[in-house]
Design goal:
The protein has 563 residues and is α/β, with parallel strands linked by helices. Helix content is 30%, strand content 17%. Bound molecules: 1-O-alpha-D-glucopyranosyl-D-fructose (TEU) and calcium ion.
Length: 563
C-alpha cells in the first residue's frame, strides 16, 4: 500500500454511514406543513439510534422554491420557512454532541432568477453581474444560440426579462439561470461561500449537478433527437474538456484547507474520469454510484426507458464496484430525492414486501463505500398512488407526462409512466406514526402524505423487533462492530457466484473474511460453502445448511464470517 492510500485511509469518513434529509418533507416543528431545521433537531436521537454518522441536508437556503431549494436566492442564509442561522448552528452542535456531522448541498451550477446577481444582470446585461451568466443575443432571424433541451424540458434559452433581443441559459428550470464559471469572479464567490459554511462547522458538501458547470463553447446546434427539434444537452456536458480545471481549483482552494468531505453528483462518469474524480488525488472524497439509477434511460423520455430487473441491478453494482477498485471510494444509494422509492424501482411486485426490502437493503449496504440512506427508505416507504396527473408537483413528472402524451400514449399509460418515475414519490412526508398526517405535521402538509402511512410508519417498526427499521439498525451496528469495522470500511470487494442471475453475492476481505449473499428473487437458491462459517446477520430466521451447502429462501439475505 503506498503512502497516499494510507493517508487517505485515516480520513474520518471512511466506513461511515450517511443519511439524506430532504428538509421540506422530513419533520415539521411548527405546524406550517413544511419540514424544518427544528424538526431535524427533534429527530437527532432517532438518527443516532439508526446508526447514522453523516447527515446530508438538501438545500436549506432562501429560495423561491421553483425547484424546492435547488434555486438559491441567497447563499448566506437559511430560508425562513426552514428556520434561522442560529437553528443551523444548533443543529451542527447537537449533531456534533451525538457524533454526527452535517453536509450541506452546494448548488453552484445555477442560482435563482431572484438572486440579486440575476436581478442586476437583467438591469444591465453588459455590466458586472451580466457577466455572471450566459447571456446571448438572439439572431435577427430569431434563431437561438443552440438547440439544447433543458433537463426539465423545453429550450435551455429563455428571453432575458426586459431585453427581448437577449436570452439567458438555464440547464434546468427557467428560474435557475446557469452561472458562468468561466468568470473568475463567479468562482471566487462560490468558493468564498463554501468556505463560509465550512467555517460554521459543517463537515462538507454534496455538490449538485457538478458535471454541468463547464459548457462546450461556443454554443452550437446539434442534430435534433426528438420532434421538438431540440437535442439532449448531456452529450456536450459529457464530452466537454476542462471541467477538471474548475474542480481542481475548488478542491485546492476550499476543500483541502478545510479537510472537507465532498461528494460529487456525477452522472456521466466516464471510466477514464473515475481516477480523476475520486482517485487518490481526486476532486472529491467520494461520488455516488448512479450506475443502476441511470440504467435503462433512453433519450426519448421516460416512456422509452427500460425497466430494471434485480439481475440488471446486480450487474450494475458489480461493475461499478469493480471499476472503483481498491483505491476509490464510492457512495452507495438506492434512493434519493430525485428518484422513485427503491422498493418500486428495484423490486418486482411480488418482492415488494418487508423481506424483499431487507434483502435489497443488505445487498447494497455492505458494499465497499459509504452507504447513504434516504429518509423513509429505512421503513420501506413506497411510491405514492397517483390517480391523476393533476396531483404531480414535480416539474419533471409534469413535463414527462406531456412528452408521453405527445408521443401518442394514452392518458392512463402516460399517467402510469410519469407516476412511476415522478420525483414526488420520494418527497412525500416521512411517515413517523399512524396519527393524522403521519405525525409529520400538525398542519396541512405541503405535499400529501402517502395513504400507506397507517401500514408503514416509524412508530410501528420501532416496536416490532423484526421490522425493516430494526434491520437497518442491525446492519449499521454490524458495520460498526470494532471487529468488523475495518473490513467493511476498507476491505476488498470480490464478486461471488456472479453468473447466478439474481443472487447478489460478494466477499469483503480485510482483517476478516466476510461473505454477503442476497437472494433477490422468490425462488430458493443454494451455494456450496466448504468453509467453517458464522452467521452475522440474517434477513430471515435461521437458514438451512446441509453437507456444506447453504440454502437461501426467496428474498433471503445473509452476512457470514468465514472462519
Ligand atoms: O439533479 C441533477 C440531475 O441531473 C437531475 O437532472 C436528475 O437527473 C433529475 O432530477 C432526474 O429527474 C440535481 C438535484 O438532485 C435535483 O433535485 C435538482 O433539480 C437539479 O440538480 C437542479 O439543481
Ligand atoms: Ca415548519
Amino acid at each position: 500500500m503506498d503512502r497516499n492510500t494510507t493517508e487517505r485511509k485515516s480520513a474520518w469518513w471512511y466506513g461511515r454511514i450517511a443519511y439524506q434529509i430532504y428538509l421540506k418533507s422530513f419533520s415539521d416543528s411548527n405546524g406550517d406543513g413544511i419540514g424544518d431545521l427544528r424538526g431535524v433537531i427533534s429527530r437527532l436521537d432517532y438518527l443516532k439510534d439508526l446508526g447514522v454518522d453523516i447527515l446530508w441536508l438538501s438545500p436549506c437556503y432562501p429560495s423561491p422554491w421553483a425547484d424546492h431549494g435547488y434555486d438559491i436566492s441567497d447563499y448566506y442564509d437559511i430560508d425562513p420557512r426552514y428556520g434561522t442561522l442560529s437553528d443551523m448552528d444548533e443543529l451542527i452542535a447537537e449533531a456534533g454532541k451525538r457524533g454526527m456531522r452535517i453536509l450541506l448541498d452546494l448548488v453552484a451550477n445555477h442560482c435563482s432568477d431572484e438572486h440579486a446577481w440575476f436581478r442586476k444582470a437583467c438591469m444591465d446585461p453588459e455590466g458586472r453581474c451580466g457577466r455572471y451568466f450566459y447571456i446571448e443575443d438572439i439572431a435577427p432571424s430569431g434563431k437561438l444560440p443552440c438547440n439544447h433541451r433543458s433537463v426539465f424540458g423545453g429550450s435551455v434559452w429563455e428571453p432575458l426579462p426586459g431585453h427581448p433581443d437577449k436570452v439567458y441559459l438555464h440547464t434546468f428550470h427557467k428560474k435557475q439561470p446557469d452561472l458562468n464559471w468561466e468568470n473568475p469572479e463567479v468562482r471566487e464567490n462560490i468558493y468564498r461561500n463554501a468556505a463560509w459554511w465550512l467555517d460554521r462547522g459543517i463537515a462538507g458538501f454534496r455538490i449538485d449537478a457538478v458535471t454541468y458547470i463547464k459548457k462546450e463553447l461556443p454554443f452550437a446546434d446539434e442534430p435534433a433527437d426528438r420532434e421538438d427539434g431540440l437535442c439532449y444537452l448531456g452529450r456536450s456536458a459529457e464530452s466537454v474538456e476542462g471541467l477538471g480545471v474548475f474542480l481542481r481549483e475548488m478542491r485546492d482552494c476550499v476543500f483541502v484547507p478545510a479537510q472537507a468531505f465532498t461528494i460529487g453528483e456525477v452522472f456521466n462518469d466516464q471510466e477514464n474520469e473515475l481516477p480523476l474524480m475520486i482517485g487518490e488525488d481526486g476532486y472529491f472524497s467520494s461520488m455516488f454510484d448512479f450506475s443502476h439509477i441511470t440504467f435503462g434511460m433512453k433519450r426519448l423520455g421516460w416512456y422509452s426507458w427500460d425497466r430494471i430487473t434485480t439481475e440488471d441491478y446486480k450487474q450494475c453494482v458489480m461493475d461499478a464496484q469493480r471499476r472503483a477498485g481498491k483505491r476509490r471510494y464510492l457512495s452507495n444509494v438506492i434512493e434519493n430525492h430525485d428518484r422513485p422509492r427503491a422498493a418500486n424501482r428495484y423490486l418486482p411486485p411480488e418482492g415488494r414486501t418487508e423481506a424483499g426490502k431487507k434483502c435489497l437493503a443488505l445487498a447494497y449496504f455492505m458494499l465497499r463505500g459509504i452507504p447513504f440512506i434516504y429518509q423513509g427508505q429505512e421503513i420501506g416507504m413506497e411510491n405514492y398512488p397517483f390517480r391523476s396527473a393533476a396531483e404531480f408537483d414535480d416539474v419533471t413528472a409534469i413535463d414527462e407526462y406531456r412528452v408521453s402524451l405527445a408521443a401518442g400514449l394514452g392518458e392512463d399509460q402516460a399517467l402510469e409512466i410519469s407516476a412511476g418515475l415522478s420525483r414526488d414519490n420520494a418527497r412525500t412526508p416521512v411517515q413517523w406514526d399512524e396519527t393524522e398526517n403521519a405525525g409529520f405535521t400538525t398542519g396541512m402538509p405541503w405535499l400529501p402524505v402517502n395513504p400507506g402511512y397507517t401500514r408503514i410508519n416509524v412508530r410501528e417498526q420501532e416496536e416490532r423487533p423484526d421490522s425493516l427499521l430494526n434491520f437497518y439498525r442491525a446492519m449499521a451496528s454490524l458495520r460498526k462492530e470494532p471487529k468488523y469495522f475495518g473490513t467493511f470500511a476498507w476491505g476488498d470487494f470480490e464478486p461471488a457466484w456472479e453468473d447466478r442471475g439474481s443472487l447478489l453475492a460478494y466477499h469483503r476481505k480485510g482483517e476478516r473474511h466476510l461473505l454477503v449473499l442476497a437472494n433477490l428473487k422468490p425462488e430458493e437458491e443454494s451455494v456450496l460453502l466448504p468453509f467453517r462459517c458464522q452467521v452475522l446477520l440474517n434477513t430471515a430466521e435461521g437458514c438451512r445448511m446441509e453437507n456444506g451447502r447453504l440454502f437461501l429462501a426467496g428474498w433471503q439475505g445473509i452476512v457470514l464470517e468465514l472462519l
